[in-house]
Specification:
Layout: H1 6-31, H2 41-52, H3 61-81, H4 86-103, H5 114-121, H6 126-150
Helix pairs in contact: 1-2, 1-6, 3-4, 3-5, 3-6, 4-5
Length: about 160
C-alpha cells in the first residue's frame, strides 16, 4: 500500500496543476488560434518530467528540446525517404531516435514516441516547426518560469 504523505500529495497536486496549465495553453493556441499546431502527444509525458521531476537530467531544457527535435526528425526522414512497411519503419525509427538521443546526450524519454506519431500521421517537415520546435519552446519557457520563479526550484540545473 502506498502511504500518501502531505509532501507527496502537494508534489502531485502541483505537478498535475501546472501540467494541465501548460498543456491547456498549447491546446488553446492549437484550437483557438490560426497560428498552427502547438501540441504533440509526446508533450503530455514531458509534463511528468518537467513538473514532477524537474531535477532529472531528462527534464533539462537541452534534453527536452533536442530530444523532441531529433526523434521527430528521424520520423520525418523515415516518412519521406525510407520506403519500408510501416511496422518496420516505426520499429527502426524508434530505435534510431533512442540511439541518437543517447549518442548526443540529449535523452528525453517522452521523445521516444515521436517517430511513432510522425510515421503514423505521415507528418511533413512542417511538423518539426509546429508543433515540435515552437511547442517545445513554449513548454520550456513555462517550465522555467513556473519551476524557477513560482515554485523557487533550481531549474534548469546547470
Amino acid at each position: 500500500m502506498i502511504k500518501i504523505t502531505k509532501p507527496l500529495l502537494q508534489k502531485a497536486l502541483i505537478a498535475g496543476f501546472f501540467s494541465a496549465f501548460t498543456i491547456g495553453i498549447l491546446t488553446v493556441l492549437t484550437y483557438k488560434s490560426t497560428l498552427g499546431y502547438f501540441i504533440a502527444a509526446s508533450f503530455g509525458s514531458s509534463m511528468v518530467l518537467l513538473f514532477g521531476f524537474p531535477e532529472s537530467p531528462f527534464a533539462q531544457p537541452k534534453n527536452v528540446f533536442f530530444g523532441h527535435l531529433i526523434t521527430a526528425l528521424v520520423g520525418v526522414i523515415f516518412v519521406n525517404y525510407i520506403p519500408l512497411p510501416i511496422y518496420i519503419s516505426i520499429a527502426i525509427a524508434v530505435g534510431a531516435g533512442v540511439f541518437l538521443m543517447i549518442l548526443f546526450n540529449i535523452v528525453h524519454p517522452p521523445a521516444g514516441g515521436n517517430p511513432i506519431i510522425v510515421i503514423i500521421g505521415s507528418a511533413s517537415y512542417d511538423y518539426l516547426i509546429n508543433p515540435i520546435i515552437f511547442g517545445s519552446i513554449i513548454i520550456l519557457l513555462l517550465a522555467i518560469i513556473i519551476n524557477k520563479y513560482i515554485l523557487k526550484k533550481n531549474y534548469p540545473i546547470k
